[in-house]
Amino acid sequence: MMTMPTIWLLTLFSVIYGSLATHHFSRNLQTLSSDSNDQPYRTAYHFQPPKNWINDPNGPMRYGGLYHLFYQYNPQAAVWGNIVWGHSVSKDLVNWTTLDPAIFPSQPSDIKGCWSGSTTLLPGNKPAILYTGIDSMGHQVQNLAKPKNLSDPFLKEWVKFPQNPLMAATSDNNIESDFRDPTTAWLGQDGHWRVLVGSKRRTRGMALLYRSKDFVNWVQAKHPLYSTKDSGMWECPDFFPVLKNGQLGVDTSVNGDHVRHVLKASMKSQDYYMIGSYNAAKDVFLPDKGFDEFVSRYDYGKYYASKSFFDDGKKRRVLFGWVDESSIEADDIKKGWSGIIGIPRAMWVHDSGKQLVQWPVVEIEELRTNPVNLPPQVLKGGQLLQINGVTATQADVEISFEVSKLIEAEVLDNWTDPKILCSQKGSSIKSELGPFGLLVFASEGLQEFTSVFFRIFKYQNKNLVLLCSDQSRSSLNKNNDLTTYGAFVDVEPLHEKLSLRTLIDHSVVESFGGEGRACITARVYPTLAINDKAQLYAFNNGTSDVNITRLSAWSMKKAQIN
User: Domain Glycosyl hydrolase family 32 N-terminal, which positions (predicted)?
Assistant: First the structure.
């Protein structure tokens, strides 16, 4: 343990960048570029293909005792293009085996690309894929594919419907280039299937609704399920029920007074959601009070184009999301890959009914090894507490804080976007209550570090908890995106502890605040804090002491991925 005055943090965070640090950065960049076997940023337990480009997760499902994950994949390069549906299978959502691409351009309706879509289990447990194809005219149309052999649990071969496409944009609304990403379909009590397709009209984003009795002949409804003005194109929509009470999931076709419905849309580089009800008679979505527009997000960092499915084995709703790189394209090409999938998350409605909760699936804990448990203790202002005995580049850390002097919280006069607030008040800016949290991927002299921390404010006489993931000092390579992310966490620090769980995986920092009420995912590429040179700390740069009530950390074993 090291105890230092707050000025130590302030000074070191600000001035340690000098010619020596620049020399180290240049030397390491040359080393990494010249040695293709050195992959300090490749993940150990997050899903990614052996090489090349990946983006949206597509059609996750459970079939034949196996989990199937499809994904947008370029088999030829580490940049977007030549998109096919990659395919991997798993018994546990942790270890994955790659298979040949499931869908690739071969018909006039998808000859220029096989874009995102979803799977639906038809009666008799028969999977079907609806996906967006780019036809020979460059228009976006919706296509159908089914397994060639249902007795094959790997579903290695898929057969496209000869009469594809099943859905095409009508010429009067001029949306041929904004008509994509069909959802998992749901079956209404009238025996008709429904599916949503993301779209927009001018600047109004929407989820177009289609109905079918046979899953082949689809008719567009007169009105969208829901739309919002000035939101732009809705990509990768998702629509599913969640229980009002409890953490279990339900099948996508379930409706009734015991469930709420979640409508999610990917837009403006973020995944937004609303909670509300689904009026099946009118085929419309009615947001709950407070959800009149898209404000809430799955993740306040780098997380996009997510797709959920109902896991009928564990009776849960599971979410996959694409985590893009923060490095420049030239660096992606050098390392030979780009993009990963976030840790699968179980998802349910919080007891308050006001938000979703997300938590890494329990299976990921099977990778935990060499536990380190520190006793409860006071973390004084300006103190760094090193967490030893853990592989700092490949870890799972859970820490909880307790604050006793909330009367000293800094007053926030005006409501501010949390991302902006975290940018203005990073880990080197002290206040009475915060910042306190974790320093991950920290180099020996703290030339590099990524900080994930809480800060507490008073706003309109109420306590307001801010969670930040500050990448501004994460790397000496300034070509990277060093954006700082932030989210407010709906917790009351007077009555409950401030909990933080952070999954650390070579170039990923995936954080869950308030037991999953706020999630922030970041990508970082340190040049010094790599491999065995990285260090891990708990820190408090506020002027008031905070109590660590729990600190448990584990090294994570490498998963068998592709």
Answer: 46-360
